[in-house]
Amino acid sequence: ISRSFGLNVGAAIGITLFLSQAISVAFYVIAFAESLIPFIGIESIEYFATLLSNLGIIENLTELTNDNKINIVRTSIGLLSMSILTFFILKKGANVGMKALYFVAAILFISLIFFFLGETKYSFDQINLADKVDNPKDFWVVFAIIFPAFTGLAAGLGLSGDLKNPEKSIPRGTILATLVGLIVYFAVSIKLRMSADVNVLGDLANQFIMSDVAIWGPIIPIGLACAAISSALGSVIIAPRTLQALGNDSVFPFQRLNKWFKKERTRDNEPINGAIITSVIAFFFIFMGDINSVAKIITMFFIVTYGAICLISFLEHFSADPSYRPTFKSRWYFSLLGAILSFYLMFKVDTFYALISIGTMSIIYYYISKNNKEKGGLEKLFKGVIFQASRRLQIYLQKKDEESETENWRPFVICVTEDSFKSQDSFDLVRWISHKYGFGTFMHYINGQLSKNTFQKSKEVQNKLLSISKKKNSRVYIDTIISPSYISALAQVIQLSGISGKGNNLILFEYESTQTEELYKVIDNFHLLAATEFDVCILRKSFRSFGSKKSIHIWISPQDFENSNLMILLGYILLGHPEWNKAEINIFSVYEEGNFNQENKKLSTLINEGRLPISSTNIQLIPNDNNSRIRKIINNKSSNADLTIIGYKAELLEKQKEKLFKGYDKLGNVMFVNSASEKEIINTED
Hints:
Elements lengths: L1 H4 L1 H34 L1 H13 L11 H27 L1 H23 L22 H8 L19 H30 L2 H4 L7 H5 L5 H30 L6 H7 L10 H17 L2 H29 L12 H18 L1 H21 L6 H26 L8 E6 L7 H10 L4 E9 L4 H20 L4 E8 L2 H10 L10 E7 L4 H8 L1 H6 L3 E7 L9 E6 L7 H12 L8 E8 L4 H14 L9 E5 L3 H11 L5 E5 L2 H7 L12 E6 L12
Helix pairs in contact: 2-4, 2-10, 2-12, 2-13, 2-15, 3-4, 4-12, 5-10, 10-11, 10-12, 13-14, 13-15, 13-16, 14-15
């Protein structure tokens, strides 16, 4: 997990896994102590309780019930057993545990044979496996208690460093263990039902019913003890190695702590400090004494770990990262099903414990990420997933665009400039337009031939722009383009498919009000933009920039009425950005003599039916006398506007050239708009 999606994600799951393994040691040791209770007898229990009372360890002996005394004896046996287990692990290491497992497995096998050879009361045809006991426990309570017994199926995961060929041995061993375990569990269940009545099986006073069935009863508690101690051995061997792996990856904030956790004993490479921590945790939970409470805690920690592993496996499949090349191939739907079932089971078992376990993992992740920002976290986890989802969506959108005859307009704006660091007005305009309703691409132009030096320069520029973008909380895609001339760069850009998966439809240029060199570039290349059906916006920057972002003035004239809808839409789109959400739009419509009523009705219908947030008091109609007077009126009425939007026609641009944009000296920033086609504001389907 840590190698696939970063150490922070791996650490959060790894620490939770370690806690599960360490706590499970206590669970199995308590179970081992439970198996010895039938051999002790009530007289010995009474004697031991009296001894502890005389030593002052327990008080009010006469008030204790038999169950209380059994719990005391069970806890005492557990603490003693854990002490012996700790001694051998610290003294001899994992080797003695591995050797003991072979002996324990042999005893388990013999106990199962003795059980299956026991007397059978009913034939298979006579039993009903769906029978229920009187006053049955809730299924999920039983599930939580027995679930830790299944976790040994994945015990091999913690021994990867000790295996010769772990990439093959672990998946094969885990699957074989699961299959064999299923067969044994089903066989034991059927044998029990064939050997005793349902109510006898559900009698809590006789939890060793298997002893009554087996041909030699004492073998069952012995087998149970071996099963418990084998699981305890497995966990006490694996947990220190998990903690050692976390230390090796330096996931903890203090290097001294990481160094202490990964320390090995020289003679046998045993993670001695990890074993000490594991033993301390186990002692604490053994002292709790209640096996059912411990079982619930382990169940939650293990399920959340397994669920996270399944989820990450699914995300790996979905992201299709070529660096993810597991030796053992699995199916994505198994991983997804495992993740869903894991989290479903958690909340069915116990919502409180489920929230605690998820909260614990979240807190661990937050703390680790805060102190290890460079090691990758959830952003790395979802990077491949987002890429894959984006790729599929882009292809889907492209196909749907071909099928669609009509579509409501939204801006896919691109800006190409070499003055990115002189002024940020054009960048700001792109991010405002693309914030909510569309997509924005800001492209820095670098003049020159593509070479190692210019390529390196482009990366440096891109990183600087990304830093600016991050500070402004921008949603703009940042890129650079290297080309020997501006016209060649422009030709390349307008042919590129938009990074959004849809083609760009709006291009933004900029020029200083006192310098018109950049304006000539737009005028000279306008034919390219017209041929590719781009809407063309030209931002004339002034020293006032965008002022306080409180007012937008839109000027509509009969000569360029086809631009009006795009101009109004752009004004409305700007209001969608938090920096402009308190602004007002004022519309000034220039009308020909005698067309006042017609023009007034047209604008009112447009505003009302288009549901635009523009008050009727903010609409002014101005008679058209002559062009020079109109420019004078615009200068007077919009001199205090933070942004003035004015339309222009392609035919006039070809004739008047740069003169078309002159005569607006009293205005702040002006955006000149040319629409390639008329945009719809009123949805005809409404």
